[in-house]
Amino acid sequence: MIGVDISSSAVKVLELGRTSSGFRVERIGVDSLPPNAIVESSIADIEAVSDSVSRAVSRSGTKCRDAVIAVPASHVITKSISLPADLSGAELDSQIMFDAARYIPYPLEEVNLDYVKMGPSPEKPKEDEYLLVACRKEVVDDYVAVVSTQGIRPAIVDVETYAVENAVANYAKSSGDGSLDGVVAVLDFGAVSTHLTVLKNTRTVYARDHAFGGRLLTDEIQRVYGLSYGEAGMAKKTLQLPEGYEEEVFEPFRESMAQEAVRALQFFYSSTPYNAVDKILLAGGTSLVHGAADLLGERLDAPVMLFNPFQHMSVSKNTDADTVKAESSSMLVACGLALRSFDE
Description:
37% helix, six-stranded mixed sheet, alpha/beta
């Protein structure tokens, strides 16, 4: 199966393979979305997003037609519940539906609902812990529709947060990096928003979106220099900007980026029992802003690492290694989705 990540700014397609030495990047394709195709994590222009999916699949060269997609965490309701360990299958389903009706603030016929057994309850020896996950059908239907119209079959609908968890867990396992088994914060700086996911022992304990992204820098370049949106985006990439850009535009943006990261972690500390993290992983295209990693390392009280989910994977001869390297920071979710092909 291929992983298809539909973010606010681009569609990313990834196919992974498995060899005797680990995973391999087989195919990769990326296509930019027009502004406002995705608004507040909802698909606003189905035709534009569908066309972008088609181009990304075509660019990847994949022949696979089964896909794993994800809905944004902001549209998802999750709840951990404990149930008696001796429930039969029918009893379990009945109890899950009963609890879902209590915790989900929508009629159950309006949501897609699923659950997974997490293991024995740490607090109740005779009970098992389950994770209940629900999303409005209208949201799921839109994400399924933009993929299905291109002849792709959405075999699995995941949640972006758990795709991040999957990618980090795979990295920790393949790298042998024991520090990732502690409390790890993943700051994914996207075009429109920053997603903070905190893991403990590679399991998600916290996730929240913050309204800060790389598009703010594009908007400021557009405003200060009187450029069109497209011209501003190109100027940001090529750095063909007037003298004074660094001091007037870039440095304030980078400072705002650091402040947002600090605020995101402070909010995490204030709303959970945690008061520190062991490591911080930076992902997303905006994380590559020159000097951002060093600045965040100075401001955040934990080691900071630019995260590359492909670092311990090989690259197929059918795929351009330079493209894989260039896109690696923005492929976090796509990687986690593509790894679902190998679920045991």
